[in-house]
Write a structure and sequence with these properties.
About 3% of the residues have low confidence. Helix 1 crosses helix 7 and helix 4 packs across helix 6. It is globular and about 45 Å long. It is 37% helix and 14% strand. A six-stranded parallel β-sheet has the order 3-2-1-4-5-6, sandwiched between helices. By secondary structure, the chain is α/β, with parallel strands linked by helices. It is built from seven helices and six strands; from the N terminus they run E-H-E-H-H-E-E-H-H-E-H-E-H. Bound molecules: flavin mononucleotide. Flavin mononucleotide (FMN) binds next to helix 2 and helix 4.
Length: 220
């Protein structure tokens, strides 16, 4: 399905009237398309997004997509806001050492965070509780606050270290959601494959989506 329709009418606002905010981090694993499409869908669903990009993620975005992302963090927010037609203030981008940002502390961080794509390096750091950059600290915060942390880890094949790190995190309640598209929806484009994975992430976040028909149901 084309476009970023998520069929969302109310999910941008929480029951208490506050805006819903989700933290999205992209790290330097292959699959930048997944993270960017997820960002597009969250913006379309009227959800506020706190975004972080690791330095390798910026390299991967440059390698795998045609997006001419500015290098400076201070310019990335404005660029992506225009690109995805976000509301003013809907999308905030934080730098690698922006310790004054809300995601750095349990008192300010959203309780929902997705790392998409997630490198094995970042998986390892989070599993070890050894975060030094803001993305890793933000994940550590969501873990300690017992929020919802979703990792979209990408590597193939996995080593025993990778698998053990992911198992350790899964046992802590982290959702390990590998970008493994099914083929039963008969994809014909790369976008179809990307949307399969992004739809599963949105389902985990309880964000209504109509990216593709649901198995056994006639409507999305
Ligand atoms: C084009 C490109 C693709 C990469 N793909 C992967 C990958 O699929 N999985 C992975 O774990 N690392 C991958 N890497 C290596 C990571 O970027 C590297 O380990 C980096 O240190 C991760 O740092 P980060 O987690 O802070 O982004 C890739 C690097 C590049 C440049």
């Amino acid at each position: 399905m084309s476009g970023a329709e998520t069929n969302a009418t109310t999910d941008g606002t929480r029951a208490d009237g506050a805006r819903r905010t989700i933290t999205l981090a992209m790290t330097g694993a292959s699959g930048a398309q997944y993270g960017l499409r997820l960002l597009e869908c969250l913006v379309a669903a009227d959800i506020d997004v706190f975004l972080m990009l690791s330095k390798p993620a910026q390299v991967v975005i440059g390698t795998e997509t045609s997006l001419a992302l500015p290098g400076r963090v201070s310019e990335i927010g404005a660029f992506l806001t225009a690109h995805y037609r976000a509301r003013p203030g809907q999308l905030r981008v934080f730098g690698r050492e922006e310790w004054s940002s809300p995601v750095a502390s349990g008192s300010g961080a959203p309780r929902e965070m997705v790392i998409c794509p997630c490198s094995m390096a970042t998986v390892g750091v989070i599993a070890a509780g050894a975060g030094r950059e803001l993305i890793e600290r933000a994940a550590d915060v969501v873990l300690k606050e017992r929020g919802r942390l979703i990792l979209v880890p990408r590597e193939t094949p996995f080593s025993v270290i990778h698998l053990e790190n992911m198992l350790a995190l899964a046992r802590l309640g982290v959702t390990i959601l590998p970008p493994s598209p099914g083929f039963y929806h008969e994809p014909t484009t790369m976008e179809d494959l990307v949307d399969f994975v992004v739809a599963r992430i949105l389902d985990q976040l309880d964000v209504p989506q109509r990216l593709m028909p649901r198995w056994g149901l006639t409507t999305g």
